[in-house]
## 1
Amino acid sequence: MKALIAYFWPFAAYRDVGRGSVLERAAAWRHNRQLSSSLPLYIRRWAVCVALELILIATLPSPLTRPLAVLLTLSFCGLLHLLSVWLLLRRR
């Protein structure tokens, strides 16, 4: 289970930029910026999941589409979260 979480969620290695002194927060920010180079890989993984869920919703019978629609909503929110973090860390 931990491997599956690590496959889809990269934020275990990120540091909290809201704690510590000014120097510690700056170091955490630099650390997170360095790690952000791997975020496009995670964004692609989530985008593939969203695409597969859309395909399944379009092809499966209607009783199965409601749970998949909930999963699609959660996956899309995860994708948007990763995109927003990546954009935040990439700006200058």
Note: The chain has a mean pLDDT of 94.
## 2
Amino acid sequence: MRGSSQLSALRDPRGGRRRGALLLLASLLVAAAPVTPPPAAATPPAPSPVTVAAEVDTTRLTLGDTVTLTVRVDHDPAVEPILPEARLDLPDGIEQAGFARTTTPDPNGHTVERLVWQLRAWQVGRFTLPSVVVTYLDADHQEQRTASRTIDIEVVSVRATEDEPPRPMTDPVPLPVNWRLVAMVAGFAVLLAAGLVAGITAWRRRPRKQPPPPPPTPPDQVALEALLRLAHSDALAEGDAERVATRLSAITRHYLEHRLTFPALESTTREVEQWLTSCDEVTTEMRATLLDLLFATDRVKFAQGWATVDELTAQIDRAKEAVTQLGGG
């Protein structure tokens, strides 16, 4: 029965037409299926506006020698980084002997800050010079930090030198030998050499008095110097209210963070207001001046506010007055 039905289907022309129609419908459905486009390529991250690079003039030195650590800070002129203190946190056995700072324009339009430390080695071994951290504000007015790489150096006691060429040998002349005197001289020489070696070793290992580190720059002085630079900046002269307000807010918050030891740079203005309310060192008048200053800069930064050069200059003067009063000056 089954074989006969299959034979009748093959003989029936209508069955062939139905199968052809089904195949045509399937091909049309496949052609109309949506094509998924390939994923778009990821957008590369924007380059950092501040780069920090460190290098030394040598990685191998002897006791008492100096090594020069140079840190290059390359940044856009519109970005004002907060550079580290002159005193480095060095490992035991390495001391700081000097510091210098220079600022030069770059042919590409950037500004290059060079920080140069002179370091002296007083112990033998391998040491790691720390990285140097630089803080700045990005395009979204958020605090960012970038750092240089650490550098390994080696301190040895004596440098390796080439051996002297051998001297020509001649036949010895036989002489009478007083072996008793030779033994006495040799024993005395051994004792003298041992005492000399022990004395040199004790002298090298004696505790050395480290020079006291220079006192850190007071935060009041740092803030007043930054405000003075802002008052004579191109941004203020050009009337760029957003740049001036951003920099003024950063200087004020940086001062409050180091003067009153709370994270003002990472806090909102409302959080700063709550903290100043509970701070005994801040009077009601100083708190009102600081909050009015921060809210005014927020209106310019975030609400697209507008301010004249005279208004910006007045805000800078108010910030100077607040720093002077809070610092007890």
Note: The chain has a mean pLDDT of 78.
## 3
Amino acid sequence: MTHHRRFAVACLGAVLAVSTATLGQEPAVDLDTTLARAGAQLQRRYERAQRIVSTETVSVRSFTHEMRSNGRPRRLVYERRLEWRTQEDGAPVVMVFRELRSVNGRPPQQADLDACLTPLSEVDDPLWVLLPARQAEFEYSLGALERIDGRLVARIEYVPRERAPAEIGWDEDCVSISLPGWYGGEAWVDVASGDVLRLDEHLRGRLEFREPQDRSPVRPGTIALERSDLSMRYRSVAFENPTETLMLPDTIERSWTIRGGGFVPRYYRIQEFSDHRRFVTSGRLVSDDSVRE
């Protein structure tokens, strides 16, 4: 399975506090061991996290060439959950599902669901690149060791082994771009536990494509996706009954730059997560006598 990313994924901004102290006395860290530990810990987390529902608050903004805000930001609130699936070949796939609950404080309308910058209701989770069944699709290397919030963290860099052609679709003025194998990234992994604390991805190269003929009254112009970046941060969340602690998303920052086709050139989106809770179903037993009555 190739590595897919949709249009408008990106990495901006906030950096976790990193100690400036020398790491010369730290123990040696092995890439294969760290990667195996991260993959096993991630798989265990997904097997439990598929029962987790969260509130996701999304802020969407766009900017002119001069970095002036293009209109007011939109604020969307979703209910979000994970689902773990196994394909016919036995490989696991992690999907994220969203249900839009409000837009700028009001109930959503159909136009909100169809808006270009609205997050997809169903989308892959980028962390699947570290799952054991997917690791053969990437080349990994070990970056520098860091201290983040008191933890010894190894930075694992990765690039896809294959790149497939871009898949471009249009829905009126909205463009959707799937780029299998076009993104490289790096993950910050706790050496002791295998927890992923942060994941960044970046578009490797520049994509040019043409507008469809029916979108332009004259000769279709060229559109260029110049940048597309993603940064995800995670934090530990404690649950009771049963007691357990899971690493769950805290924020996702995305930004991208596109030229041509009448698009506003710069876009930015931040997703913030809160109110993590278990999804629990309940029921009751009914006796045969009660059914007959």
Note: The longest strand covers residues 222-239.
## 4
Amino acid sequence: MTERIHLDHTFTIDIARWRNQGAKCIFPLCPQTAKLKTIFISMPNQSTTGILLLNLGGPEKPADVEPFLYNLFSDRRIIRLGPFFLQKFIARRIAHRRAPTSRANYKKIGGGSPILTITRQQAEALEKVLSNTGSYIVRPCMRYWHPFAKEVIFEMLAAGITRLVALPLYPHYSLATTGSSLADLSRILQKLNCSLPLSVIRSWPTQPEYIRCLVERVKKGLAQFNGKPVELVYSAHSLPKKFIDEGDPYVDEIQQCIAAVEQQTGIRGRLCYQSRSGPVEWLQPSTPDMLRNLADNGCRNILMVPVSFVSDHVETLYEIDILYRQMAGDLGMRLESTPGLNTEPLFIEGLKKLVLQGVAA
């Protein structure tokens, strides 16, 4: 037996009442259009956990680049652009100015970011390996581009979930990544008056399967050099230094991760930071500075490990594999990089264990 309920333009849903009545949606909602919607509900047969894979997101085509950048620079958790009331105005101007260069960079890797495609593949793989442990729905949940938290939560509610698990695909916690994604998710859940249980996996810098994946990639990467001397360089996404000064654990967790890898490989590496922009003080050394320093000291071979990224996107496919490789070549060095973890079965197994730990907590 089904019955109809209506949602008005505020999208306010009493999820607790739904859950108490044992109801779930059959047809997904359409949060993009703030119009009256009719949905159908029915009685669920079992409890279902919704897994949100939190990630940054990225433009899928050239037309997406400028609005994506606008969303990014509008987030005061990452960067404060003047007084609060001017944030979006300044963000729009910055996005417009930077869009042509960003579009050119994305063009070199196919015209857009593959991050949503890869995250969907990761979600499908994770849902598959979880299927023998219970009822799970796994979906990407992006911060600065579609699918946004609101869109994913509506889909989850439509599927009749009974609890949520937020799993960030940022292994190392930072206010600018995990913190921002979780704050946005909390805002949406509050707006929807959603009282479903929520488990949050804050970070996982030394998760065993994740570390083993990095170890295997380091070993395979070094084998490409046929025994020649190689400098191992870990490159992480940079942050304004003030984040760390104010207590952000990002650098500490990256160092924990690298220490866990080195314990298994017995090989010491160097840490540097890429993708900085803007006139503030960023973490040091930058990846370009690291390359120049290594060249000055006679280095001829580099294996670069993108330690803070678990899927390939513009920072790996363009910055490392094109920009930094060319820079290294101009400095007389050979640079190779390890591929993203993407849908590596061992990595997906690690995500499964994180989910099960989160559900049990």
Note: The chain has three domains: 3-54+114-203, 62-107, 208-337.
